[in-house]
Specification:
single chain; mainly alpha; Serine Threonine Protein Phosphatase 5, Tetratricopeptide repeat; globular
Amino acid sequence: MKLNELNRERVNKLISESSDFYEIGNRSKSIDLLEKAWQELPGVKYLYDESYHIARYLTKIFLESDNFELAKNWAFEVMKCDPERPDIGEKEFLVGKVLFESGEQSEALEYFRIANDKSEGMCFEGEDKKYNESII
């Protein structure tokens, strides 16, 4: 679902500013801006295209910070986001990656298998080989 122009501009500006802070290593400010962008999404937030990007970026930052609990929370949020988005296994791969890194390998394996089936293995391209090796 598309945001109206005013909301889209505000949300995209916050996402862009978040990216700038992330690039200079200020994860805290990046997270704050992404959370503000999330709050700018009206009503049922998951319906909007931007919800996927915000939740995915938050998952990535929390995972890189070894904050596995928040990374898991946001990864499962990603699963609900932007239902119109093509289902090619990227959501399942992200959840699998977070579970794997948080020490839940057997649970990760389930998500990696789904991601592998949906993407015909493409989700694993460019990623650490340990994820792909876990399904072999």
